[in-house]
Amino acid sequence: ATAVVREALLKLEQEVAQGHGKASAGAAQALRQALKEHGRFIDDKLQHHADQVLLAAGELEGWQRWRADQIREDLVEKAEALLAKPLGGRKQQEALRAMREQWKTSDQGGTPNHALWKRFDDACNEAHKVVEAWLEKTKEQTEATKAQRRVLIDEVLAWAEAHKTNTDWKHHIRSLNGFVSKWREAGHLSEKAFAEIQPQWKAAMDAADAPLTAARNDSL
């Protein structure tokens, strides 16, 4: 009986020392069960020791629940603050993502608080509308920029076809430099969108540059 109680007691002491809330609750339950079954066979000293550790485990569990709710209340305030003063666009999106991750972490350290979760989730969903509007606007801007760049690519291809026999190389170089400037000023695209359209641009410019490159090679 003493060995069984001591084993359960040691396990609980380890969990309490390491601050494991959920694990210490399980270990405390195991110790209570051991005491229920074997308590009448152990000495007073061991019983007192077990009582002290059970008390410490209860304090740890209560503290972790209190601390988790403190963190959650802070997250609720931050989420509701995003409604009053939106950060706008990407910053709002990143802030909401980070806060939801923090909430998940708080659930691992304490008992879930459904009332606070409802407030937090409602605030986050409302604040996310700013992100949705930004994403829609960004999508529209991306499509407009891509369309502008496609028009420029078509312009380069048409120019290449019209000037493939032209040997005014100064005019050729000026025109190509002009196209490059237009491309640089054609508006921002995400890395993915730019990577999709860049090969088309390069192919068009290679076609436009082919007569000049051939003339340079002949000259060399």
Rg value: 34 Å
Number of strands: 0
Major sheet summary line = none
Query: Could you estimate the helical fraction of the residues in percent?
Result: over 70%
Task: Indicate the structural class.
Answer: mainly alpha
Average pLDDT, to the nearest integer?
Answer: 86
Strand content: under 5%
Any descriptors?
220 residues, mainly alpha, 7 helices, 0% strand
Which helices and strands occur, and which strands form pairs?
Layout: H1 2-18, H2 21-38, H3 44-84, H4 89-109, H5 114-162, H6 169-184, H7 191-219
Helix pairs in contact: 1-2, 1-3, 2-3, 3-4, 3-5, 4-5, 5-7, 6-7
Task: Describe, in plain words, how this protein is organized in 3D.
This protein is about 85% helix and about 0% strand. With about 220 residues, the protein is mainly α. The longest helix is centred in the middle third of the chain and has 49 residues. The protein is elongated, with a radius of gyration of 34 Å. The model has no long low-confidence stretch (mean pLDDT about 85).
Give a short synopsis of this structure.
The protein has seven helices and no strands.
